[in-house]
Amino acid sequence: MTDIIKVDRLCKKFRLKKNAAGLKGLFHPEYKTVTAVDRLSFNIKEGERVAFIGPNGAGKSTTIKMLSSILHPTSGTAEVMGLIPWENRRRLAYHIGTVFGQRSQLWYNLPVQDSFGLIGKIYGLDDIEFRRRLSKLVRLFEIRDLLGHPTRSLSLGQRMRCEIVASLIHRPQILFLDEPTIGLDVTAKEIIRNLVKKQALEENTTLLLTSHDTDDMEKVCDRVIIINKGRLIFDDSIHALKESYLNKKYIEVTDDSGAKIKTVVDTKTTPVKKALDELVQKYHITDITVENPPMEEIIKEIYRRD
Amino acid sequence: MTETLLKYGAFFRAAFKQGLLNRGMLSGLLFFLFILLFIYNRLWEVIGIQDNNSSLNTIYIWYLLFAEMIILSLPKPDRVLTDDIRSGTMAYYINKPISFFLMRYAEALGSMTVSFLVMGGVGSLMTLSLTGVPPFEWRYFPLIIIMCWLSSAINVLFYCGIGLSALWLESTRTLAVAVERLAFIFGGAIFPLSIYPDWFVDIARWTPFYSVYYLTIKLVYDFSWTNLFEAAVLNSLWTVLIVGFVGFAYHHLNKKVNIYGG
Ligand SMILES: Nc1ncnc2c1ncn2[C@@H]1O[C@H](COP(=O)(O)OP(=O)(O)OP(=O)(O)O)[C@@H](O)[C@H]1O
Ligand SMILES: [Mg+2]
Predict the structure, then answer these.
(1) What residue spans define the domains of chain B?
(2) What distance in angstroms lies between residue A60's CA and the mean position of ligand 2's atoms?
(3) How would residue A23 be classed by pLDDT, with cut points 50, 70 and 90?
(4) Model-wide pTM > 0.80
């Protein structure tokens, strides 16, 4: 299969005014350079579902913005479907979809359906084509009941489903999702993950998804790229990441006195079942959570082993 | 070409529909319009009696109606665009096959057209009952309405341009208010400029408001092909200038967005 996205030593530096306020700042501005993305290289094949993971400020959004042609890089290059994104905005626009979790592309006061209609017009779809496409997406993302409501009245989870539908109306081959699960509760996150994956599998959409949440990548993606401070620090299959870094489970139980007991289980040496059995025998458990190690731990671990 | 029209037409229609649903805004507008027409009608009646000229209020109240149709129908596109620039919303449209500016302009035209037509319709009834039949011949009516709508469209474009100046200005609202005041003074927003002293008119001539407002609206009571031609030529000239500025600002904005993104 061919590489649908190629990224080669991509860099993005931002110049920030250091002393913004006051007269001195006006006449002698001092600049500070922030390197958001630092010589990033990777390739993505058609149909791959890639998680783009990293802590706050790692450069995930900046990378997505460059690949989706919103931003010019400082140096390095990239190709998306054989096109250099920032030089071929219009042409690429018809092949990529973008969702930025922190922004809405729907019209706040219009019924969701009308927003979809406008987006169809932006991409120049004719009515029949548009209706056929929308009815499929509406079924896939289970949003029939939401169509008549204005965006402002939707819950975050409902809105996010509509945002994703909005980005898929023109049948993009590549979908960029920047934190699609941000601010959602566990159930809503789960719904979004399932739907995104279902759509990607059904239409062979190439997916690049950023998140802080390691669960997002486990559930949706087959490959993971981790970046930190703009640099690539890990690029392999989810399976490989799990084998070598996600082998710890953070278990927290609450006993009937209300006390919380935390343990970390290394699943390589101790099966989860055994660890749970021990806990059950020791305590009167009223509540339990099992979590993957947080992002920071994984990154620390990657650095430690290097 | 047709596809482009369809594209932006969709935004015009969506805003038009939204505007029609905004009953509160429309009633407020009509209420304000009625007060204006009522007060100035009384004023011109009194002046007319003193001057022994009973047609004064008919002429000037119909003039006032059309002036307000242009002035009051203006939505706040400057605010919308400034917000879009400040919040970075614009950047997220850069990878969509549409011009963000034209999209916003089409929306503003849609909102404007609703107010324009509603004020035109209901306002005409108000004016009819206050002062009687309009001073223009009915066969010129379509031309007058089209000219006034075009003026309103130029007006909207002008304020869109002000919105884009957020690129250089801290507060575009201050500029918009200043322009509103100037337009009010030099455009003959309440009274036709013909009642002002000559030196004042000579200054006003150099502003876009002179033709976009005054000369255009004057067709209501002083229609002639020469007047129409003069207004049309001057308005076109100003439009070219405004489009030039808008193009320049938009180009710069795109360059900046390229570097800084949202
Ligand atoms: N427009 C901008 N101007 C200046 N600096 C910026 C700009 N956009 C991003 N940065 C800086 O670049 C770095 C990377 O930001 P980016 O938004 O790509 O991170 P991220 O990985 O998406 O983080 P988060 O998880 O918080 O969304 C940060 O230090 C940020 O402050
Ligand atoms: Mg981000």
Answers:
(1) 2-256
(2) 6
(3) low
(4) yes
